[in-house]
Amino acid sequence: MNTANNQLPFAARLPSPNGRDAPSVPGVLTACIQVLILLAAVFWGLNFAGQPLMASNSPNLQFNWGGTNLVARGGWGRMIRLTNDQWLCVNTRFERNGSSLQIHRCRNFPGDWDLRAEIFEPGRLLDNGELIRLPGGDLLLTGRSLVEGQSYRLPVYRSLDEGQSWTAIGVIDANEGPAGSLKHRGLWEPHFFRLSDGRLAVAYANEKHEAEQPSFSQVCSERVSPDQGRSWGNEITLAAEPGGGKLRPGMPVVTRLINGKYLAVYEIIGVGDADVFSKLSTDGEHWPPGLGNHLEGHHAGPWVVSLASGELLLTSCANRVSCSRDFGATWNWVEPPPWNVGQGKVFTWPAIYETGPNQIATMIAWHGVRIRLGSWIANR
Questions:
Q1: 45 pLDDT above the threshold of 60
Q2: Whether residue 215 is found in the same domain as residue 313
C-alpha cells in the first residue's frame, strides 16, 4: 500500500504542537482497525493456511533409531538405490579454492562407503548434488555450478556404469553475464522427480526474475525433459509470492503420492524462521498459484517422501520428523527425533529414504555426511 497517495481517513483532527493537524483518539482507533483488517486481508491473500504439527504419544508414531554411519567427509548428501544392497551417495567436497561433487558407493548398506568418482568443473564451484536412476538403469546427476556473480548453471551428467564415470549431457537452466553483473541471480538446489508418463522433471530455486517487473527475489521453478535429461522445456512456476516481492520460496522437494497426485515442500525465507510450506498438484506440472500451505514447526531445507504404505514423512533443518496419513492434510510428530544436533534450526540439510519394509534412513550433513536407520516401533 502506498501511504503517500492513499491516506487512511481519520474521524477528526486536532491542532498539533508543531502546527500540523493531529488525529483524534477515535480517529487513531479507526485507523488501527483498518490497518489490522488490511494486514489480515494480505495474510489470507498469501494463502498462509497453517497446519499445526501435533505431538503424539501413539506407539505407531514412534521410531527406533539405530547407530550412525559416516558416509563421507564434506557436506550435502543425497543418495539413490542401485540394488537391494548397494546405494550411491553424492556429496560436496569443499576445498580452499573450490568445491567438487563426490560419488560414494555402499555395498553393505548402511555400512562402508568407498569413493567411486569425483566431478570437477575447473574454475567453478559445485554443490547441491542430486541423483536419479532412469528406468533403463542409467544414472543422472545434477547440482549447482557457479562462478559467483557471473555464471550460474544446473548441469546434467549421465553415468552408464553405475557411477564410475560421468559425461555432461545437458543444462537444465542457466544465467550468464559479465563478471559481477549477476549478484543474487543464482540457481540452486535442483531436485529430480518423475511424472506419471515417465518424463523426467526437476524443481529448483530460481533468482533470475529479480530484475523483472514485477520483481521476484526468488521463486521455486520446474522444468520437464522430453528426452531423459538432454533438453528441458519451458519454465513452470511452482511457488512464488503473488505479485512479486521479497519473499524467497526455495529448496523445493517433490514426491508422488500413491493417489497419483504430487506434493511439493519448500522453505520461504522471509516468513518466520525460513518456515516450510507445501502445495499439491494433480499431475506434477500444474500448481495452484500463491505460496501454498504453511506447515508449522518445520524450518529450512525441507524433505518429503511418500512411503509404499501411502504415509508421508517430512523433515527439515528443525531436525525432527513428522508423518501424514491423509496426503499432507494433517501432520503429527514422530518421536523421538532421529538426530540430536541442538535446539532450533540447525543447518543439516536432511533427507529421508524408504530403505526396506518398515525401515527408513535419514541422512544429514553434520561433521560429515551421516546416515541413520530407523524402524517403526509398532506395526501400523
A1: no
A2: yes
Distance (Å) of CA 34 to CA 8, 42, 147, 310:
8, 12, 48, 45
Instruction: Based on the fold, state whether residues 169 and 36 are members of the same structural domain.
Output: no
Domain that holds residue 38: 16-43
Cell of 376: 517403526
CATH, residue 210: 2.120.10.10
**Beta strand 98-106 with 167-176: parallel, antiparallel or unpaired?**
unpaired
- Do 176 and 231 belong together in one domain? yes
Cell match 541413520: residue?
Answer: 372
Q: What gap in Å lies between CA 267 and CA 81, rounded to an integer?
A: 26
Q: Say yes or no: 177 and 299 in one domain.
A: yes
Closest C-alpha to 284, from 202, 219, 195, 220: 195
Looking at residue 130, its amino acid is E
Q: What dihedral do alpha carbons 284, 289, 294, 299 form, nearest 10°?
A: 70
Q: Please name every residue paired with 138 in a beta bridge, in sequence order, or none if there are none.
A: none
- Domain contains 4: no
For 199-237, the pLDDT digits (tens) are 999 999 999 999 899 999 999 999 999 999 999 999 999
Q: Please give the Cα distance from 364 to 342 (Å, whole number).
A: 14
Report CA-CA distances (Å) from 129 to 75, 119, 201, 236: 10, 10, 15, 21
Residues 32 and 157 in one domain: no
**DSSP letters spanning 316-330:** -TT--EEEESSTTSS
